[in-house]
Amino acid sequence: MHESIAELIAEGPVLTDGAWGTQMQARGLAVGACPDEWNLSNPQAVEEVAKAYVDAGSRVIITNTFGATSFCLARHGLADKVVQINRAGAEISKRAAGDRAKVFASMGPSGVMLMMGDVTPDQLRDAFAVQAQALAEGGADALVIETMSDPAEARIAVEAARTTGLPVVACMVFDSGKDHDRTMMGTTPEEAARTLEEAGADCIGSNCGKGIEGFLPICRRLREATDRPLWIKANAGLPKVVAGETVYTQTPDGFASHVPGLLEAGASFVGGCCGTTPEFIRAVGTVLKGGSSHPVA
Amino acid sequence: MSDPAQLYDAILTGNAKQAEEVTNAALAAGVNPTELLGNYMIPAMDEVGKRFECNEYFVPELLIAARAMKTALQILTPKLAEAGTEAAGRVVIGTVQGDLHDIGKNLVASMLEGGGFEVVDLGVDVPASRFVEAAQEKNGTIVALSALLTTTMTQMKAVIEALEAAGLRGATKVMVGGAPITQQYADEIGADGYSDNASAAVALARNLVK
């Protein structure tokens, strides 16, 4: 295990952060605008989001760089800004974190499909390597590869991220199949654990998905399949429409009530994905402090 | 000579090369293109859909089957037109305004083509007015809307309202899908149908044109 990961989890489960996109929209990010670009044009707002999570007790926060590969930025005409956007993203989160939290910089899927020949493995590897390098230069303490569906892409991203020498977390989204226990590409938690471990991920996990309830069996299955620490960030369920507004109906306490189960199932890092807020993280933090549960090693 | 029944297996297993060879051989041997489509190709895609529903197939298998189907269809389409065979229906598909995600939309488009539909793909970040224009071109069009983001899914309602304002709502069916979309949401905005995967989207489209 990477030393810095071992250090972090030595005293028990670690509180991570919640959703960023919705927090930025609350601060004026337009629908359809490129969130990652705010690292350059509105860094104060991004830092506010980061700081809100640090204030809520997050010991690990991510960065506003989920969509900052050249492939995603190209859709916004920003392919030439990859390095600046990623470096700034890491710097902003580091400023907000100070010595209170570690920064695990976010790398999301490219949005292009290997199996359809949209892109070659080498092109994908290069794109992730450029992003990872810029995040490392910006001061990231670790890299977290998130929301992956395709094990082939996840493997390439992990390998590219490892070239920085930073610890690497890799997580996939299990939201498909009858029982919502496969990725879109059909990958099971067992297959994901094996692939990510082989690729050299220091920490393995799952994020997003279809609601926190579904993470219990996934977390258990990952725990059975690997001895790496587990990273779990569930979303706040699927949004509902109330009076024309898109809302998440799950409450912070309702969300946090599932956390003891996750710890029992072996999670070392716990936080939230889409629809969660600093209030959710506070509620999870209360459970982490009050609970006597310890992660199963 | 190769047996046209091999076309069924070629599509089911996603073997585009074999699909191409068998299609060409069958046409050269004088097999009726409409029969080729109806007896082998569409049944193969239906079986792909069934296997997807019961977790035997996942997105990779869908994609390669749809690609094999498309290869055979490209050879067949001119012959079908000559024979006067009509498409199962016309679908105008796109990701709504403000949303640049296209994996799900492309998958549904491929499966609809494989299901015998004429598909007009408007791409991503499509404003409501473009859906209206494309729906105007032919009566009985299905408009299929995709959104990945909770912030852009509200655009689906805007498209439905624009179709209403243009007087097209009666003649146009609207189907919606995407990660944050639910049946409840589809009902709330007055869509005609929702499906949570690309395979079920074909069955839904068939129901909508019935």
Residue stretches of chain A low in confidence (pLDDT < 50, at least 5 long) are 292-297
CATH topology of chain A: TIM Barrel
Instruction: Tell me how many strands of chain A there are.
Output: 10
Q: What is the succession of H and E elements of chain A?
A: HEHHHEHHEHEHEHEHEEEHHEH
What is the terminal separation of chain A in angstroms? 12 Å
If you compute it from the alpha carbons, what radius of gyration of chain B comes out, rounded to the nearest whole angstrom? 17 Å
Portion of residues in helices of chain B? 55-70%
- Assign an overall shape of chain A: globular
- Which regions of chain B contain 5 or more consecutive residues with pLDDT less than 50? none
Query: Largest interface here, residues on each chain?
Result: A-B, 28 and 34 residues
Number of domains of chain A: 1
**Total helical elements of chain B:** 9
CATH superfamily of chain A: Homocysteine-binding-like domain
Q: What structural class results from the helix and strand content of chain A?
A: alpha/beta
Please bin the fraction of helical residues of chain A. 40-55%
Give the structure's gist in a few sentences.
Chain A has 13 helices and 10 strands.
Question: What does this 3D model show about the protein?
Answer:
- The complex is a heterodimer of chains A (297) and B (210).
- By secondary structure, chain A is α/β, with parallel strands linked by helices.
- Chain A has one domain: Alpha-Beta Barrel (TIM Barrel), CATH 3.20.20.330.
- Chain A is 42% helix and 15% strand.
- Chain A has helices at residues 3-9, 21-25, 38-41, 43-55, 70-74, 82-97, 121-137, 151-162, 189-199, 215-225, 252-256, 259-264, 278-290, and strands spanning 14-15, 60-61, 102-107, 142-148, 168-172, 203-208, 230-234, 240-242, 245-247, 267-272.
- Residues 292-297 of chain A have low confidence and may be disordered.
- Chain B has 210 residues and is of the alpha/beta class.
- Chain B folds into two domains: 6-82, Methyltransferase, Methionine Synthase (B12-binding Domains), Chain A, domain 1 (Orthogonal Bundle); 90-209, Cobalamin-binding domain (Rossmann fold, 3-Layer(aba) Sandwich), CATH 3.40.50.280.
- Chain B has nine helices and five strands, in the order H-H-H-H-E-H-E-H-E-H-E-H-E-H.
- A five-stranded parallel sheet of chain B has the order 2-1-3-4-5, with helices on both faces.
- The longest helix of chain B is centred in the middle third of the chain and has 24 residues, at 59-82.
- Chain B is globular, with a radius of gyration of 17 Å.
- The chains are: A alpha/beta (297), B alpha/beta (210).
